[in-house]
Amino acid sequence: MKKTVIALGLAALVVMGVSYASAGGPGFGPGKGPGNCTGFFGVSNLTSEQQTQLQDLRQTHYNEIAPLRERMFSLRQELQALWADPKADPQAIRDKENELTELRNQMRDKAIQFKLEARNYFTPEQIASFGSGCGRGGRGYGRGPF
User: Which of 14, 25, 73, 97 has its Cβ near the most Cβ atoms within 10 Å?
Assistant: First the structure.
């Protein structure tokens, strides 16, 4: 009886330890973090006027792409449903993929336009350092291996 109680106690401790260790769930832990991007696109010596102008520009850009982001989210869900359906028409999947690609291209074009507009607020010296302070990402709490 005593051995059974000890075995059950140890099993309970193991289960509790495993559940605690996996509480973070998949996708958390070390991975690509935000990198070391200082300032706005790597330009760190911004005046307060430049910061205000760039924040306004950023908010305008965010408001402009919000409908595209929402449409992209719903398209991904539709596409996931099509891929999960064994009876889905292959052409319907291709059409959704093409539509999603078109949305990505629109968002990329808007991002390029945003950066070009942001450059208008920089001095020539700041433009020379544009993007130089941004790394490709470092270790941090990004998407992990799972």
Answer: 97
